[in-house]
Amino acid sequence: MAYELGCGELRSAGALALAGLVWLTAGQAAAQPQQLPEIPVTVSRFGTGGITGASNTVITREDLLRAPQNSLADILSREAGIQTSSFYGGVNGVGTTIDMRGFGVTGSNNTLILINGRRVNDWDLPNFDLSTIGRDSIERIEISRGNSGAVLYGDGAIGGVINIITRTAAPGDRPPSGRIEAGFGALQSKEVNASADASSGPFSIAASGTGLESQGWRRNNALHQKSGVIDMRYTVDNAAAFVNLAGDNQSVRLPGERIISPTLGIDELNTDPKGTSKPLDYARKQGFAGAAGVTRMLAPGVEVVVDGGIRNKAQQGAFFAPFAEAYVDTTLTVKSITPRVIVTQPLFGLPSKGIGGIDVYRTDYQSDRPLFYGLPPIHSYTAGLTTTAAYWQQTVGILPTTDVSVGGRIQRNETFARDVYNPNAPQNFANPQGLPLDTSETQRAYHLGFEHRVNSTVALFGRMAQAFRVPNIDERVGMAPVFTVTNFALRTQRSRDMEGGVRLQQGPFNAQVSVYDMWLVDELHLNPVTGANVNLDPTRRYGTEAIATWLVAPDLRVKANWAYTRSVFSEGQFAGNDVPVVSRYTASAGLAWNIWQRYLMLDLNMRHVGRRFLDGNENNTGASVFYMIPAHTLWDLGVRGEIEKLFWSFTVQNLFDVKYYDYALDTSFPPFFFQYNFYPQPGRLWMARVGTTFGP
Q1: Cβ(565)–Cβ(102) under 8 Å?
Q2: pLDDT (tens digit, 9 = 90+) per residue, 127-160?
Q3: Which of 61, 83, 95, 221 can bridge 99 by disulfide, Cβ–Cβ 3.0-4.6 Å?
Q4: Which residue ranges form the domains of the chain, and what is each CATH number?
Q5: Do residues 153 and 192 lie in contact, with contact meaning Cβ atoms separated by under 8 Å?
């Protein structure tokens, strides 16, 4: 079957089929003992898991281990309002961008990723790669949508915040326990996952590691990856100390684009979708992260946390780039200290929780860019970013049925950048030396939210917030077109949004519906035709999201969500047009069914993504089929079982072998030249796994 380039949406056949399967199986499921826990949409009143007034979702460890998807990025794509784009053949989600609420190719820079509440977004375009986190190391994932996370966590939380909570071991006297799993599958894929934990008195330790190899779906697409994390804790009454260490090593081959050029009579997408235009391109990364801290209860309800961390990411890449440097050797180091206080004492006799603190982050960047590996660099970029912030967020139960949350952050950003140009280095058409940059600014974020429980079934929520995003270094380096002097100068992106909705909970049924509107100024954007990063005219995002979970029977759970996302230019030459690579309609539906207790379990999921404009087509012009990335619907299936300490699973992703792509670039120069670059994604993939647990 050829790749469909039409503009039509795929309709509701998939959803109807899933609904029919639920109907047929519900009667059989009712006879089985309860195995599946209910997953609530709401979060605890003053606990973790969300921000008051925001649209929040929690992905549990059970969800992660049962998911038929192989990558964390694909698991996140099942959640309302999250879209993804992949460039490297989709192997384990390497290089996949996560986009919350419609930012397209800049989605990963507008979605803030946290690990245990610490920001891990990097000051470069590759940003943080979710594929380096082993699924077995995760306890849960907390998602908060919209601008409100900027108060607690800082810049970059425009579309929302994804907080990944890793596993820890509880103190006490417990012998070692853990699990070991091995798998093999399509594309000559092999993986190993292992985790263990133990404790003795106040000491506890938890560790996990994963390794993955795959030849990839396309030629020149092989992946070799290892990652691991270890968490050590010392816990006594009213105090604790911890050290967390993580590392990863990744090597991935980059197959490049598949071209359709009506002008040149080329159609690589359909004649050779698995081929490569970049047989020598590759990217390598070595990462290390360490964090340590202490907590102490100064008084009942008053906890002080003093912690800090360091992260280092070294990257090397070779790229076919006829008008630029073809090799990149970059090191990025982030040091941070983030003391804070958590107060859960009553405020004027009312239940209350306050969180406040100081965040200091220092990022150092060094990037050498020669023509080829081993040659002297043409450009050597040195840059740094220091952010210093103070924040406070207070949540108060003003009535037994009503909570109000108010918070604010003030942040000082200081940036410097230098470019050393070597005219004697071998080169071809390199840009001149860039102008030095020394700049500082102060930005502010705020959050105001409420939740009112009308009764035991219905709750209303709403919020308004302001956030910002500091330009990353790659955007500053790449702000000038070819043959133009770079001056690194880009303005900070600012955003304001409002959201309101309703949550429903009736027995085993939970649902949430919300509507939001977001206005942005100086949005950061890459013009893929000129190769320059720019600040856009004002833009806007608005839409609605619906989420529902229903425990149909004790061992059959159904989840579904739907999102309408509009991402438009509100002023300037593109006013009224859609921002490229953003789908207006996305949906997901799935069931988890324990067919025979824990001996045989089935998970089925459908993911639908509507059509999108190609990157570079801000004009939204033309009726040609090439101006749209078509809609696609993917089905993923997993069966698994447990027998005492043994467990096994078999998963199939893209069950019906749909030919699709979720990113494409328009490089045309109409009316003289037309060309479109596509990045096709894998067809049907299967993976078989078997493992065992040990310990009590």
Answers
A1: yes
A2: 788 888 888 889 999 999 999 999 999 999 999 9
A3: 83
A4: 13-694 (2.40.170.20)
A5: no
